[in-house]
Amino acid sequence: MRILIVEDEADLRNSLLCLMREEGYAADGAADGIEGYRKAQECDYDAIILDFMLPGMNGREYLRRLRHTKRTPVMMLTARNSVEDRVAGLDSGADDYLAKPFVQQELLARLRALIRRNYKTATGAINLGDVVVDTVARRVTKAGHDEAVTGREYSLLEFLAHRRGAVVTRSELYAHLFDENEDTLSNLLEVHVCNLRRKLGADLIKTRRGAGYIIEAADRDEPKV
User: Fold this and answer.
1) For residue 158, what pLDDT band results from cuts at 50, 70 and 90?
2) For residue 223, what pLDDT is reported?
3) Domain 125-215 belongs to what topology?
4) Rounded Cα gap, residues 217 and 119, in angstroms
5) Strand partners, 75
6) Which of 27, 36, 84, 222 is the most buried (most CB within 10 A)?
């Protein structure tokens, strides 16, 4: 999953970028509304974390323009926390609203909820045969046992699981799983696919030569009991 952070406070922006990457997300940053809007148009992000008070283009105008072309989930961050401010932010097109200062774990939980709603994963668990992807806890089990996967491996598996039954191209995977500073010409993607096959079974992720990867195992978005 790839996240865009639009925040003019450099320390907070860099802190959020580090947090996203530690959690296994790819993350890009923008220091003002104009740069952030350009990046949102150039890439299909899985979610945007947006400061309300931005130079160049404020959060309300950013959302107004964004909603003409995209439905990317947006979490608005602001130091303004009155009921009127929250209503204005949500009515402008934000999907969630979090006041500063905030607790990182709450931000991460809200971000996961935004992504689940966007992919219409009702229960938070995606059932792939004997493999279950828990999108709430960002945890993977196989036959009821926890499997140790890295943050990037988890993001790759979740992205494919959300699109199970459809071939996902290599370029689409790189666009969603790697940020703008990473080398898209390397074999990082193939390494992560190989690791997931070794941990979860060789048949879970299938290769469609010349096309991409696909997960075919899919029943319902609920864990096995």
Assistant:
1) very high
2) 42
3) Arc Repressor Mutant, subunit A (1.10.10)
4) 17
5) 49, 96
6) 36
- Helix then strand then coil, in percent of the chain rounded to 5, is 40, 20, 40
CA distances from 35 to 39, 56, 148, 158 (A): 6, 9, 37, 29
Listing DSSP states for 10-53 in one string gives HHHHHHHHHHHHHTT-EEEEESSHHHHHHHHHHS--SEEEEESS
pLDDT tens digits, 130-143: 999 998 888 999 99
| ω into 55 cis (within 30 of 0) | no
Chain centre to alpha carbon of residue 108? 10
Amino acid at position 175, single letter: A
What number of residues does the chain have? 225
Nearest residue to 166 via CA among 220, 121, 218: 218
Classify domain 2-118 at the CATH class level.
Answer: alpha beta
pLDDT digits (tens, 9 = 90+) for 40-89: 999 989 999 999 999 999 999 999 999 999 999 999 998 877 788 888 88
Sheet holding 47-51, edge to edge: 26-30, 2-6, 47-51, 74-78, 96-99
Nearest to 52 by CA among 73, 27, 81: 81
